[in-house]
Amino acid sequence: MITTRRGSMPYPSGVAMAVRSVGIRARGEQEPSRRTNEQDRGGRSEKVAGLRRREVLRGLALGGAGFGGLRPSSPFVGRARDATPTGSGERFAAEVDAGLDYFRRRAAEQVPLVAALRDGIAEGDMERAKTAYVAARPPYEEIEVLAASFPETDEAIDARPCAIAGGESSPAYRSVHRIESLLFRDGDLVAALPYADGLIGSANALLVDLDRREGFDAVRTFEGMLALSEEVASKKVSSEEETWSDQSLLIFFHNWRGIESQYAPFAPAVELTDASTASAVGDALASAIATLKPYPTGNGVFPAYSAVPASARGEIVRASYGLRDALTRAGSALDLV
């Protein structure tokens, strides 16, 4: 049981890592420098709301060159004393690096999970393949926060039919969602195998993408957090993210956890700049996670999303919009959005 300011949440210890530090503020020592040239943002953060996410992500990539103060022991928190620009002159470079380090670990963990999925399919074991599919989903659903920096790999790993011209009839549709429909809807292991082979290659490509440091900065980090928190509310609920596996709750949770992992290194700077905003972000994450409290996991698997009533889905929508709004305040406090 993990206790937050919102109450006790009956998640297994691995799942509860994302909420264990909510509402506890860390304090840094130096005030971050403020941006003096408004044009540094290059307009990348404008008009994110209301647009199709993958179009937004592609545009950002082409156009670009615990929440709320977490405990230092949190797996997401970098070195708080590095909460200033490094010698490169990049604002919040240490914070960006801390977030990337976490995602690099998650990407490395994803590779054997995807290989296990491929092996289950190759051996003709449907139940093993389905179990491996669910186990392989969390890492990328966290890393998705920064997908604007690697749109081609994002499409190869995670695109749904609506993002591909021609939908399921297109050979370009080869993501994990292709595998999802072949396993859970069609029961076709033979057809799924080549896509599982390809997914291993895409998972390895992601490792390379995350090492291209020039593709990441603080502005992109905040844009990614805003885009994904809005996508959960505006798209992933309304169009049902995991239609065939029925594991949409798993996706929402790990999207929020990924957002937390990238915000956490910035939390001390937000706290120093605007303590009320830092508190608001912590409250917003707690509210989002609380919407999943009635649906505890079993061995990493959430209850079927099809059993979640409309009223509860509405709470998820409102909570993720609330998270977006709090993050917007935080980004504004740091002059990043």
TrEMBL record:
What segments bear the compositional bias annotation Basic and acidic residues? 26-49
UniProt-listed Pfam families: Peptidase_M75 (PF09375)
**Listed InterPro entries:** EfeM/EfeO_iron_uptake, Imelysin-like, Imelysin-like_EfeO/Algp7, Imelysin_sf
Record field: transmembrane: none
Q: What does UniProt give as GO cellular component?
A: cell envelope
Keywords annotated in UniProt: Signal
Q: What are the start and end residues of every segment in region (Disordered)?
A: 24-49
User: Where in the cell is the protein located?
Assistant: Cell envelope
**Residues in domain Imelysin-like?**
111-308
Q: Where does the protein principally reside? A: other
Q: Which family does it belong to?
A: Belongs to the EfeM/EfeO family.
Official protein name in the record: Imelysin-like domain-containing protein
